[in-house]
Amino acid sequence: xxxxxxxxxxxxxxxxxxxxxxxxxxxxxxxxxxxxxxxxxxxxxxxxxxxxxxxxxxxxxxxxxxxxxxxxxxxxxxxxxxxxxxxxxxxxxxxxxxxxxxxxxxxxxxxxxxxxxxxxxxxxxxxxxxxxxxxxxxxxxxxxxxxxxxxxxxxxxxxxxxxxxxxxxxxxxxxxxxxxxxxxxxxxxxxxxxxxxxxxxxxxxxxxxxxxxxxxxxxxxxxxxxxxxxxxxxxxxxxxxxxxxxxxxxxxxxxxxxxxxxxxxxxxxxxxxxxxxxxxxxxxxxxxxxxxxxxxxxxxxxxxxxxxxxxxxxxxxxxxxxxxxx
Length: 326
Hints:
9 helices, 2 domains, Glutathione S-transferase Yfyf (Class Pi), Chain A, domain 2, 6 strands, alpha/beta, 39% helix, elongated, 10% strand
Protein backbone atom coordinates (compact mmCIF):
# COMPACT_ATOMS: atom_id res chain seq x y z
CA UNK A 1 0.00 0.00 0.00
CA UNK A 2 1.33 3.41 -0.96
CA UNK A 3 -0.67 5.38 1.63
CA UNK A 4 -3.72 5.47 3.87
CA UNK A 5 -7.13 4.70 2.36
CA UNK A 6 -9.41 7.74 2.28
CA UNK A 7 -13.18 7.13 2.54
CA UNK A 8 -14.20 10.59 1.38
CA UNK A 9 -12.74 14.05 1.19
CA UNK A 10 -14.34 16.79 3.25
CA UNK A 11 -14.44 20.25 1.80
CA UNK A 12 -12.78 22.80 4.11
CA UNK A 13 -15.08 25.43 5.60
CA UNK A 14 -12.45 28.17 5.68
CA UNK A 15 -9.52 28.30 3.26
CA UNK A 16 -6.30 29.61 4.75
CA UNK A 17 -4.41 31.75 2.30
CA UNK A 18 -0.68 31.32 2.46
CA UNK A 19 1.45 28.91 4.43
CA UNK A 20 1.91 29.12 8.18
CA UNK A 21 5.52 28.61 9.06
CA UNK A 22 6.21 26.58 12.16
CA UNK A 23 8.96 27.53 14.62
CA UNK A 24 12.35 25.86 14.27
CA UNK A 25 13.13 25.73 18.00
CA UNK A 26 12.53 21.94 18.14
CA UNK A 27 12.96 18.97 15.83
CA UNK A 28 10.52 18.20 13.03
CA UNK A 29 8.55 14.96 13.34
CA UNK A 30 7.76 12.86 10.32
CA UNK A 31 4.10 12.91 9.28
CA UNK A 32 2.80 9.41 10.02
CA UNK A 33 -0.17 9.87 7.67
CA UNK A 34 2.03 10.07 4.58
CA UNK A 35 4.07 7.31 3.06
CA UNK A 36 6.90 9.63 2.22
CA UNK A 37 8.06 12.94 3.59
CA UNK A 38 11.15 14.81 2.66
CA UNK A 39 13.83 14.63 5.32
CA UNK A 40 14.34 18.35 5.28
CA UNK A 41 12.32 21.43 4.41
CA UNK A 42 13.74 23.81 1.90
CA UNK A 43 13.75 27.37 3.03
CA UNK A 44 13.80 30.37 0.71
CA UNK A 45 16.48 32.88 1.84
CA UNK A 46 14.63 35.97 0.66
CA UNK A 47 11.30 34.85 2.28
CA UNK A 48 10.31 36.81 5.35
CA UNK A 49 10.53 34.75 8.54
CA UNK A 50 8.15 35.37 11.43
CA UNK A 51 9.52 35.13 14.94
CA UNK A 52 6.46 33.40 16.42
CA UNK A 53 3.18 31.71 15.59
CA UNK A 54 1.25 34.54 17.24
CA UNK A 55 2.45 37.02 14.63
CA UNK A 56 1.30 34.72 11.84
CA UNK A 57 -2.10 34.23 13.52
CA UNK A 58 -2.53 37.98 13.89
CA UNK A 59 -1.74 38.44 10.25
CA UNK A 60 -4.19 35.70 9.34
CA UNK A 61 -6.98 37.31 11.39
CA UNK A 62 -6.44 40.69 9.77
CA UNK A 63 -6.90 39.26 6.30
CA UNK A 64 -10.56 39.30 5.20
CA UNK A 65 -11.84 35.84 4.27
CA UNK A 66 -14.84 35.49 1.95
CA UNK A 67 -15.92 32.26 3.69
CA UNK A 68 -16.22 33.98 7.07
CA UNK A 69 -18.16 36.83 5.52
CA UNK A 70 -20.57 34.34 3.95
CA UNK A 71 -21.12 32.64 7.34
CA UNK A 72 -21.85 35.96 9.01
CA UNK A 73 -24.35 36.86 6.29
CA UNK A 74 -26.11 33.51 6.70
CA UNK A 75 -26.36 34.03 10.46
CA UNK A 76 -27.85 37.49 10.02
CA UNK A 77 -30.40 36.10 7.57
CA UNK A 78 -31.45 33.35 10.00
CA UNK A 79 -31.86 35.85 12.84
CA UNK A 80 -33.99 38.04 10.61
CA UNK A 81 -36.22 35.07 9.74
CA UNK A 82 -36.65 34.22 13.43
CA UNK A 83 -37.64 37.79 14.22
CA UNK A 84 -40.20 37.69 11.41
CA UNK A 85 -41.65 34.42 12.75
CA UNK A 86 -41.95 35.94 16.21
CA UNK A 87 -43.88 38.90 14.80
CA UNK A 88 -46.19 36.55 12.88
CA UNK A 89 -46.93 34.54 16.04
CA UNK A 90 -47.77 37.74 17.91
CA UNK A 91 -50.20 38.71 15.16
CA UNK A 92 -51.84 35.27 15.27
CA UNK A 93 -52.27 35.51 19.06
CA UNK A 94 -53.87 38.91 18.67
CA UNK A 95 -56.27 37.56 16.05
CA UNK A 96 -57.27 34.68 18.33
CA UNK A 97 -57.72 37.13 21.21
CA UNK A 98 -55.21 35.28 23.35
CA UNK A 99 -52.75 37.09 25.53
CA UNK A 100 -49.07 36.24 25.34
CA UNK A 101 -49.09 35.84 29.15
CA UNK A 102 -51.90 33.46 30.19
CA UNK A 103 -54.39 34.95 32.60
CA UNK A 104 -55.93 33.10 35.53
CA UNK A 105 -59.62 32.51 34.93
CA UNK A 106 -61.76 33.72 37.79
CA UNK A 107 -64.74 31.84 39.09
CA UNK A 108 -63.18 28.41 38.55
CA UNK A 109 -61.45 26.15 41.03
CA UNK A 110 -57.81 25.89 40.04
CA UNK A 111 -55.29 23.78 41.90
CA UNK A 112 -51.93 25.52 42.18
CA UNK A 113 -48.65 24.07 43.34
CA UNK A 114 -46.30 26.68 44.67
CA UNK A 115 -43.00 24.83 44.48
CA UNK A 116 -43.41 22.95 41.19
CA UNK A 117 -45.48 22.84 38.03
CA UNK A 118 -47.00 19.40 38.30
CA UNK A 119 -50.60 20.26 37.46
CA UNK A 120 -51.15 20.85 33.75
CA UNK A 121 -54.56 20.68 32.06
CA UNK A 122 -56.08 18.80 35.01
CA UNK A 123 -53.42 16.08 35.02
CA UNK A 124 -50.51 15.87 37.41
CA UNK A 125 -47.47 14.20 35.96
CA UNK A 126 -46.04 11.02 37.40
CA UNK A 127 -44.11 10.87 40.63
CA UNK A 128 -42.10 7.87 41.80
CA UNK A 129 -42.02 6.53 45.36
CA UNK A 130 -39.42 3.94 46.39
CA UNK A 131 -40.50 1.99 49.47
CA UNK A 132 -39.21 -1.00 51.39
CA UNK A 133 -41.56 -3.94 52.07
CA UNK A 134 -40.43 -3.74 55.71
CA UNK A 135 -41.78 -0.18 55.90
CA UNK A 136 -44.83 -0.12 53.60
CA UNK A 137 -46.29 3.37 53.03
CA UNK A 138 -49.76 2.72 54.43
CA UNK A 139 -50.35 6.46 54.23
CA UNK A 140 -50.82 6.16 50.45
CA UNK A 141 -53.88 3.98 51.00
CA UNK A 142 -55.16 6.48 53.56
CA UNK A 143 -54.66 9.45 51.24
CA UNK A 144 -56.42 7.56 48.48
CA UNK A 145 -59.48 7.32 50.72
CA UNK A 146 -59.30 10.89 51.97
CA UNK A 147 -58.74 12.46 48.56
CA UNK A 148 -61.44 10.45 46.85
CA UNK A 149 -63.69 13.49 46.58
CA UNK A 150 -61.02 15.93 45.47
CA UNK A 151 -58.08 14.26 43.75
CA UNK A 152 -57.75 10.91 42.02
CA UNK A 153 -54.69 9.02 43.23
CA UNK A 154 -53.62 6.43 40.66
CA UNK A 155 -51.02 4.00 42.02
CA UNK A 156 -49.12 1.35 40.07
CA UNK A 157 -46.70 -1.03 41.80
CA UNK A 158 -43.43 -2.40 40.42
CA UNK A 159 -40.51 -4.45 41.73
CA UNK A 160 -36.92 -3.30 41.76
CA UNK A 161 -34.37 -5.81 40.51
CA UNK A 162 -33.06 -6.20 44.07
CA UNK A 163 -36.44 -7.60 45.22
CA UNK A 164 -37.27 -11.23 44.51
CA UNK A 165 -40.90 -11.23 45.63
CA UNK A 166 -43.37 -9.34 47.77
CA UNK A 167 -44.29 -10.70 51.21
CA UNK A 168 -47.76 -12.20 51.55
CA UNK A 169 -48.85 -9.66 54.15
CA UNK A 170 -48.51 -6.85 51.58
CA UNK A 171 -50.60 -8.43 48.84
CA UNK A 172 -53.82 -7.00 50.26
CA UNK A 173 -52.21 -3.57 50.45
CA UNK A 174 -51.03 -3.73 46.83
CA UNK A 175 -54.44 -4.92 45.67
CA UNK A 176 -56.13 -2.10 47.58
CA UNK A 177 -54.01 0.78 46.30
CA UNK A 178 -53.95 -0.55 42.72
CA UNK A 179 -57.72 -0.50 42.22
CA UNK A 180 -58.73 2.12 39.68
CA UNK A 181 -61.01 5.02 40.58
CA UNK A 182 -63.70 5.25 37.92
CA UNK A 183 -64.44 8.97 38.25
CA UNK A 184 -62.61 10.39 35.21
CA UNK A 185 -63.62 13.98 36.02
CA UNK A 186 -61.22 14.26 38.93
CA UNK A 187 -57.66 15.57 38.53
CA UNK A 188 -55.15 12.75 38.47
CA UNK A 189 -51.97 12.24 40.47
CA UNK A 190 -50.07 9.27 39.05
CA UNK A 191 -47.86 7.50 41.60
CA UNK A 192 -45.41 4.77 40.60
CA UNK A 193 -44.69 2.73 43.72
CA UNK A 194 -41.43 0.79 43.38
CA UNK A 195 -40.68 -1.83 46.00
CA UNK A 196 -37.00 -1.40 46.74
CA UNK A 197 -34.70 -2.04 49.69
CA UNK A 198 -34.39 1.55 50.95
CA UNK A 199 -35.03 0.82 54.64
CA UNK A 200 -37.10 3.38 56.56
CA UNK A 201 -36.04 6.12 54.13
CA UNK A 202 -38.99 5.95 51.77
CA UNK A 203 -38.08 8.09 48.75
CA UNK A 204 -40.13 10.36 46.52
CA UNK A 205 -38.73 11.44 43.16
CA UNK A 206 -40.45 14.03 40.97
CA UNK A 207 -37.63 14.83 38.57
CA UNK A 208 -34.08 13.55 39.10
CA UNK A 209 -32.71 16.60 37.30
CA UNK A 210 -34.85 19.47 38.64
CA UNK A 211 -35.76 18.30 42.15
CA UNK A 212 -34.01 16.71 45.09
CA UNK A 213 -35.20 13.36 46.45
CA UNK A 214 -37.65 13.64 49.36
CA UNK A 215 -36.78 11.02 51.98
CA UNK A 216 -39.01 9.69 54.73
CA UNK A 217 -42.70 8.83 54.59
CA UNK A 218 -43.55 11.75 56.87
CA UNK A 219 -41.78 14.25 54.61
CA UNK A 220 -43.52 12.70 51.60
CA UNK A 221 -46.84 13.31 53.38
CA UNK A 222 -45.85 16.93 53.91
CA UNK A 223 -45.11 17.23 50.20
CA UNK A 224 -48.28 15.48 49.04
CA UNK A 225 -50.50 17.47 51.39
CA UNK A 226 -49.66 20.57 49.35
CA UNK A 227 -50.90 18.86 46.19
CA UNK A 228 -54.08 17.42 47.65
CA UNK A 229 -57.38 19.10 48.53
CA UNK A 230 -56.80 22.30 50.55
CA UNK A 231 -58.77 21.06 53.56
CA UNK A 232 -56.07 18.42 54.18
CA UNK A 233 -53.18 20.89 53.87
CA UNK A 234 -52.32 21.79 57.46
CA UNK A 235 -50.04 24.62 56.32
CA UNK A 236 -53.12 26.56 55.19
CA UNK A 237 -54.51 26.60 58.73
CA UNK A 238 -55.22 30.11 59.95
CA UNK A 239 -53.82 29.25 63.40
CA UNK A 240 -50.01 28.96 63.40
CA UNK A 241 -50.13 27.05 66.69
CA UNK A 242 -52.14 24.27 65.05
CA UNK A 243 -49.67 24.00 62.15
CA UNK A 244 -46.80 23.82 64.64
CA UNK A 245 -48.62 21.06 66.55
CA UNK A 246 -49.06 19.01 63.39
CA UNK A 247 -45.37 19.46 62.56
CA UNK A 248 -44.43 18.27 66.04
CA UNK A 249 -46.56 15.12 65.63
CA UNK A 250 -45.05 14.46 62.20
CA UNK A 251 -41.54 14.77 63.62
CA UNK A 252 -42.45 12.25 66.32
CA UNK A 253 -43.66 9.81 63.66
CA UNK A 254 -40.47 10.36 61.66
CA UNK A 255 -38.31 9.46 64.67
CA UNK A 256 -40.49 6.48 65.56
CA UNK A 257 -39.97 4.90 62.13
CA UNK A 258 -36.21 5.07 62.73
CA UNK A 259 -36.12 4.01 66.37
CA UNK A 260 -34.28 0.74 66.92
CA UNK A 261 -35.06 -0.09 70.56
CA UNK A 262 -38.34 -0.89 72.29
CA UNK A 263 -37.60 1.77 74.89
CA UNK A 264 -37.32 4.51 72.25
CA UNK A 265 -40.51 3.39 70.54
CA UNK A 266 -42.47 3.34 73.81
CA UNK A 267 -41.27 6.83 74.72
CA UNK A 268 -42.40 8.18 71.34
CA UNK A 269 -45.75 6.41 71.65
CA UNK A 270 -46.21 8.21 74.99
CA UNK A 271 -45.63 11.51 73.18
CA UNK A 272 -48.39 10.65 70.71
CA UNK A 273 -50.64 9.61 73.58
CA UNK A 274 -50.09 12.98 75.25
CA UNK A 275 -51.13 14.73 72.02
CA UNK A 276 -54.23 12.57 71.79
CA UNK A 277 -55.36 12.96 75.38
CA UNK A 278 -59.11 12.42 75.53
CA UNK A 279 -59.71 13.81 72.04
CA UNK A 280 -60.96 11.89 69.04
CA UNK A 281 -57.93 12.75 66.92
CA UNK A 282 -54.34 13.85 67.52
CA UNK A 283 -54.83 17.50 66.62
CA UNK A 284 -57.64 17.87 69.14
CA UNK A 285 -60.34 18.30 66.52
CA UNK A 286 -63.25 16.15 65.43
CA UNK A 287 -61.87 15.31 61.98
CA UNK A 288 -58.91 13.27 60.79
CA UNK A 289 -55.77 15.12 59.67
CA UNK A 290 -52.45 14.40 58.02
CA UNK A 291 -50.97 13.90 61.51
CA UNK A 292 -53.39 11.04 62.20
CA UNK A 293 -52.52 9.46 58.85
CA UNK A 294 -48.78 9.58 59.61
CA UNK A 295 -49.17 8.17 63.13
CA UNK A 296 -51.61 5.49 61.98
CA UNK A 297 -49.18 4.38 59.25
CA UNK A 298 -46.07 4.22 61.44
CA UNK A 299 -47.87 2.31 64.21
CA UNK A 300 -48.96 -0.21 61.59
CA UNK A 301 -45.38 -0.51 60.35
CA UNK A 302 -43.78 -1.18 63.73
CA UNK A 303 -46.72 -3.36 64.87
CA UNK A 304 -46.99 -1.43 68.12
CA UNK A 305 -48.08 -3.44 71.16
CA UNK A 306 -49.26 -2.58 74.68
CA UNK A 307 -51.03 0.60 73.60
CA UNK A 308 -53.36 2.41 75.95
CA UNK A 309 -57.09 1.93 75.59
CA UNK A 310 -57.38 5.45 74.27
CA UNK A 311 -54.74 4.82 71.60
CA UNK A 312 -56.36 1.53 70.58
CA UNK A 313 -59.72 3.27 70.24
CA UNK A 314 -58.10 5.97 68.14
CA UNK A 315 -56.48 3.37 65.85
CA UNK A 316 -59.80 1.62 65.33
CA UNK A 317 -61.51 4.95 64.70
CA UNK A 318 -58.97 5.85 62.00
CA UNK A 319 -59.26 2.43 60.34
CA UNK A 320 -63.06 2.64 60.28
CA UNK A 321 -63.04 6.19 58.94
CA UNK A 322 -60.51 5.27 56.24
CA UNK A 323 -62.31 1.99 55.55
CA UNK A 324 -58.99 0.16 55.78
CA UNK A 325 -58.26 -3.11 57.53
CA UNK A 326 -54.55 -3.71 57.00
